[in-house]
Design a protein that fits this description.
The protein has helices spanning 115-121, 126-133, 144-159, 164-180, 182-185, 191-209, 217-224, 228-238, 243-261, 269-275, 281-292, 296-301; strands at residues 2-6, 24-27, 35-42, 45-52, 56-61, 66-72, 78-81, 84-86, 90-94, 97-103, 106-114, 139-142. It has 302 residues and is α+β, with helices and mostly antiparallel strands. The chain has two domains: 2-185, Jelly Rolls (Sandwich); 191-301, Homeodomain-like (Arc Repressor Mutant, subunit A, Orthogonal Bundle), CATH 1.10.10. The protein has a seven-stranded antiparallel sheet. Strands 2-5-10-7-8 form a five-stranded antiparallel sheet.
């Protein structure tokens, strides 16, 4: 079993589930971002636990022929899956993309199914067919019974005495049962939530493409096709922040990671800050320190 921690989400044992180049994430709350992880693998199943110390947002494309299942590991975790509330009764299933945001500390269990390996090892298993053929798009299901069973089993695999090689024959049927019940238990996003999520994702993509530009609420309203008040409501519902506050947090996170990778001898903080749209160095430094608990120069020299 692999265990560790990292200040970068992309280093937290995510490579086998998602297309690396597609991962986009940002720290949204003050603190030194840290993710602790534990991973166990026995083909065709890979299970993991990840514990985060501050809120973040992340989106990634699932690798071909992989199925990703996620559940809350600790009840205190507050999260949104594609904008919908994601709690301890929820099971998230996707073979396409994943979009998640969290508030405060939290932890998740994840299961990755390698479909090619699954069919090679058990080509005629009914549960395997259910898993790989029934879920094409990202779905969120309220299934407290199966979520609790799955949570207990994964905890035993990662932190108890049950090796994954012994119990993955139990995990597959359990996951298949959850998928089979999705029509009865699936959370159908409301038309309002879908519209809000589309607007937020459109704005977020625009924010990332124009990191050095001076963006206004009017600009984002035009990009989203929403009036300013409606866009503010959409952002607060999906992310918990106003559009301009969310933009500032994305940019502060971008500066933080850029300074962490930069050449200490040749990098000027003012250049990195302006590349991410910060023009007033006093305000920038104050906001940066409030977010990360250190000055930009301390990040650069670390």
């Amino acid at each position: 079993m692999e265990v560790g921690h990292s200040h970068l989400l992309e280093k937290a044992a995510l490579g086998s589930a998602f297309v690396p180049a597609s991962l986009q994430w940002a720290q949204l709350e003050p603190g030194r971002f840290d993710v602790q992880y534990a991973v166990a693998a026995a083909a065709p199943v890979r299970v993991s636990a990840r514990r985060f110390n501050v809120g973040f947002t992340g989106e990634a494309e699932v690798a071909p022929r992989k199925c990703v299942i996620g559940i809350i590991a600790e009840p205190r975790t507050r999260a949104r899956w594609f904008g919908a509330n994601f709690d301890e009764t929820s099971i998230g299933i996707t073979r396409s993309t994943m979009h998640i945001s969290t508030v405060g500390r939290g932890s998740f269990f994840g299961v990755v199914i390698d479909e090619a390996e699954l069919h090679r090892l058990v080509p005629d298993a009914a549960d395997a067919l259910v898993l790989t053929e029934s879920t094409r798009e990202a779905q969120l299901t309220r299934d407290p019974i199966n979520a609790t069973r799955l949570r207990r089993l994964l905890h035993q695999v990662l932190f108890g005495a049950h090796p994954l090689k012994i119990v993955y024959g139990t995990i597959i049927p359990l996951l298949a049962a959850a998928v089979e019940r999705r029509d009865r238990n699936a959370i159908a996003p409301t038309r309002c939530l879908n519209r809000r999520l589309r607007a937020v994702r459109r704005c977020e993509a625009y924010m990332r493409e124009h990191v050095d530009a001076t963006l206004t609420l009017l600009d984002l309203s035009q990009v989203s096709g929403m009036r300013s008040r409606s866009l503010i409501n959409a952002f607060e519902a999906v992310t918990g922040y106003s559009p301009m506050d969310y933009l500032k947090r994305l940019r502060l996170d971008g500066v933080h990671r850029a300074l962490g990778r930069a050449d200490k001898s040749s990098t000027r903080i003012i250049d990195v800050a302006t590349e991410w749209g910060f023009w007033h160095m006093g305000h920038f430094t104050s906001n940066y320190h409030a977010m990360f608990g250190e000055t930009p120069s301390q990040t650069l020299l670390r």
